[in-house]
């Protein structure tokens, strides 16, 4: 395989460090899907796990060896040999070889605290463990990426000892030296200074960075390392991982490519980074933060009317890049402070040929602005419910023709005696065209039961709804002074596995508010499916 030459090599550790994040568990098929996604994105290395840790990883390495990857190389992960054991006799190192990967990542100790108190070996034995391990793996024909664990803490405690461990790895033939902020606690200034000294001391070595986010500096530390000459960066695409996570590659890669003109991915792949990040988050069953730089849904969202007006005149007045470069879109959040310019842009997307041409003083725009302010005064909030606002626009334009209507529905809660888990039942009667359909369902909550019943009734007419599911559900009391009579706002996030959208409902009845948000969600899905 001829790989495109890149300025910065990216190693994604979603399948190893990412899998150590709380609540993240990958099945074997998940691991294969993540591998395919990362290869399609074009990262240089995929760190796939420790083959000696569990049978699932062993089976993964067997399967991945037969995959025809287009861009990425697979590497297995492990530690240096155990103390007082020959590298060739170390079972963990033998399992790394058995994985048959092109590269291996091994970590060793750089901090004398760990050598003295964790490994409890003399400094010379620690250096021998590093040297023997790398030399053994190199003799077996592997590309060796050496992770200098706790390097920056070790550097702060004893620079000379930390450098000795790097010297041992270089002398043994390591192909890469990766400086790790394992505890995630150092500042960018420390990373810059230490990394620069390593680069000066070992000018012929490929130096990399592996940063954790425990102080919120993982991204900044990775960029600081690149700025002084590191050419290899490790992280996870979506940023999740041990404790507070790793460097979020979905935020790092665009900064390196667009701000520093450093190629990290094959030509043309950056525009799909948001798509791939969401795909991996879906596989891991985590939610990408709306405010994640570059790829989050709020990354290019504007609410203030003055901002929206300025953006439409000169986009860089309030945007640091063109959102299209990373496959994202500009969003104008609809609210009473958003201004008519923002509404104009939303209407143009739905009715680009409206006559007379749409503008801030168009009757439809004036009517929508007035209606928006009135509804928000009643507790509706459209800034987080773009799908509901699109339906509102379609109604105002006369483009909205409901594809179904709910004729009647009933939701019942049941609390069987002696059982701690309640059971909820929902019954719904819908009209689609001239056909009536009745369906019932049960769930652990009333909204879940209603959602299931509604989808069951409609899927016969709209099979595509089988892919749609409720992803998030939020309730907020609008005016707490009204106590139990208060109106509530329900926000629902739905997904079909590819796209996500948000809808809103408001009522003094939480079930009715949920019903309104669910109906908008389904209508939006059907409108955009056609």
CATH homolog superfamily of the largest domain: Aldolase class I
List the strand order in the largest sheet. Answer: 1-2-3-4-5-6-7-8
Distance between the termini: 41 Å
Mean pLDDT metric? 89
CATH topology of the largest domain: TIM Barrel
Structural class: alpha/beta
Based on the coordinates given, report the CATH architecture of the largest domain.
Alpha-Beta Barrel
β content, as a range? 15-25%
Count all strands and give the number: 16
Q: Biggest sheet, in brief? A: 8 strands, parallel, barrel
Overall number of structural domains: 3
Which parts are unreliable, with pLDDT below 50 for 5 consecutive residues or more? none
Number of helices: 17
CATH top level label of the largest domain: Alpha Beta
Please state the overall shape, judged from the principal axes of the Cα atoms. elongated
Q: What portion of residues is helical?
A: 25-40%
Radius of gyration over alpha carbons? 28 Å
């Amino acid at each position: 395989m001829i790989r495109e030459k890149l300025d910065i090599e990216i190693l994604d550790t979603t399948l190893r460090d990412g899998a150590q994040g709380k609540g993240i568990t990958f099945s074997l098929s998940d691991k294969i899907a993540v591998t395919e996604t990362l290869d399609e994105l074009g990262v240089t290395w995929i760190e796939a796990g420790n083959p000696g840790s569990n049978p699932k990883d062993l089976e993964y390495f067997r399967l991945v060896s037969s995959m025809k990857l287009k861009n990425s190389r697979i590497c297995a992960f492990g530690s240096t040999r155990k103390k007082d054991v020959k590298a060739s006799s170390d079972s963990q190192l033998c399992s790394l070889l058995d994985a048959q990967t092109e590269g291996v990542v091994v970590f060793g100790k750089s901090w004398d605290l760990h050598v003295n108190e964790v490994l409890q070996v003399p400094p010379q034995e620690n250096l021998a463990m590093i040297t023997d391990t790398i030399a053994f793996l190199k003799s077996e024909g592997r590309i060796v990426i050496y992770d200098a664990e706790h390097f920056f803490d070790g550097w702060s405690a004893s620079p000379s000892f930390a450098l000795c461990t790097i010297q041992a790895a270089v002398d043994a033939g390591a192909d890469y030296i990766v400086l790790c902020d394992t505890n995630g606690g150092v500042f960018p200034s420390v990373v810059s200074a230490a990394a620069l000294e390593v680069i000066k001391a070992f000018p012929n070595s490929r130096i990399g960075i592996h940063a954790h986010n425990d102080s919120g500096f993982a991204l900044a530390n990775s960029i600081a390392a690149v700025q002084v000459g590191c050419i290899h960066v490790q992280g996870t695409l979506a940023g999740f991982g041990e404790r507070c996570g790793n460097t979020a590659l979905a935020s790092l890669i665009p900064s390196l490519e667009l701000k520093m003109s450093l190629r990290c991915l094959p030509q043309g792949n950056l525009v799909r980074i948001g798509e791939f990040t969401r795909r991996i988050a879906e596989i891991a069953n985590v939610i990408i933060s709306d405010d994640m730089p570059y790829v989050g849904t709020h990354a290019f969202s504007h609410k203030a009317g003055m901002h929206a007006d300025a953006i439409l005149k000169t986009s860089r007045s309030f945007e640091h890049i063109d959102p299209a470069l990373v496959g994202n879109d500009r969003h104008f959040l609809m609210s009473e402070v958003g201004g008519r310019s923002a509404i104009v842009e939303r209407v143009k997307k739905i009715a680009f040929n409206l006559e007379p041409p749409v503008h801030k003083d168009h009757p439809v725009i004036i009517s929508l602005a007035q209606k928006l302010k009135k509804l928000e005064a009643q507790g509706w909030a459209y800034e987080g419910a773009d799908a509901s606002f699109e339906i509102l626009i379609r109604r105002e334009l006369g483009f909205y023709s409901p594809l179904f209507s709910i004729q009647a529905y009933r939701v019942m809660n049941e609390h069987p005696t002696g059982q701690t888990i309640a059971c909820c039942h929902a019954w719904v009667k819908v009209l689609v065209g001239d056909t009536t359909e009745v369906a019932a369902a049960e769930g652990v909550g009333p909204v879940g039961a209603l959602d299931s019943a509604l989808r069951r009734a409609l899927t016969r007419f709209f099979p595509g709804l089988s892919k749609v599911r409720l992803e998030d559900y939020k309730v907020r009391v609008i005016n707490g002074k009204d106590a139990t009579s208060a109106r509530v706002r329900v926000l629902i996030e739905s997904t079909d596995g590819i796209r996500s959208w948000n809808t809103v409902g408001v009522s003094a009845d939480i079930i009715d508010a949920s019903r309104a948000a669910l109906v908008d969600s389904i209508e939006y899905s059907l409108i955009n499916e056609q």
